[in-house]
Amino acid sequence: MAQQATILISPIPLRLTSIHPAQFASPKSRTSSISRSQSRTLRIRAVQDVGGGGGGPPRRLVDIIRLVPDLTRGYFRSPSRRALFGGISLLGGFYVAQTISLSFGALGVNDVIAAVVCVVLTEYVTRFYYSRPKVTFPLALLNNFKMGFTYGLFIDAFKLAS
């Protein structure tokens, strides 16, 4: 005869068959309470951890999102990480330039419009970069992307000219 266990973690009780109640034995450090009723049904109730796990109040999603800028500033303090992401940004701009040049050049449709959009975006990034009194790291990454983009377009023009 199969025993049944009722798990009350969600508002809808779930029935599990062929499970012995001893399989649900948990250490005392967990935050769920286990009780047995007289009908040999095992009930597990989830309890909210008031301590938040780290000893402080429970974290909300907004609090975690507000921590992201400080965590990224701390992550990018290392000069090697800055150089790595600067190189990735440069190569990313080169890749985007090659992709745009290949897709619009192969089709032969709207390639003039694509060239105008590329020039306008490059000039806007240049103006935005040099109008700021202080260069921040995300702004430097944007400028690296622009340099890689421009370099990719020049290399593609040299390939077409030969």
- Total of domains: 2
Enumerate the spans where pLDDT stays under 50 for 5 or more consecutive residues: 5-21, 23-32
Count all strands and give the number. Answer: 4
Report helical residue fraction.
55-70%
Q: What percentage of amino acids are in beta strands?
A: 5-15%
What is the residue-averaged pLDDT?
A: 77
**SSE order, as H and E?**
EEEEHHHH
Structural class: alpha+beta
Shape: elongated
With strands numbered from the N-terminus, the spatial order across the biggest sheet is: 2-1-4-3
How would a textbook summarize the main sheet? Answer: 4 strands, mixed
Rg from C-alpha positions? 29 Å
Number of helices: 4
In angstroms, what separates the terminal alpha carbons?
Answer: 83 Å
Topology:
Blueprint lengths: L3 E5 L5 E4 L14 E5 L5 E5 L14 H15 L3 H29 L3 H21 L5 H25 L1
Parallel strand pairs: 1-4
Antiparallel strand pairs: 1-2, 3-4
Question: How would you portray this structure in words?
Answer:
The protein is of the alpha+beta class. The protein folds into 2 domains: 4-46, no CATH class; 79-161. The protein contains 4 helices and 4 strands; from the N terminus they run ββββαααα. It has a 4-stranded mixed beta sheet with strand order 2-1-4-3, with no helix packed on it. The radius of gyration is 29 Å and the shape is elongated. The N and C termini lie far apart (83 Å). Residues 5-21 and 23-32 have low confidence and may be disordered.
Main attributes of the structure:
Uncharacterised_Ycf20, elongated, 56% helix, 12% strand, 4-stranded mixed beta sheet, 2 domains, 162 residues, membrane, transmembrane helix, transmembrane, Ycf20-like protein, alpha+beta
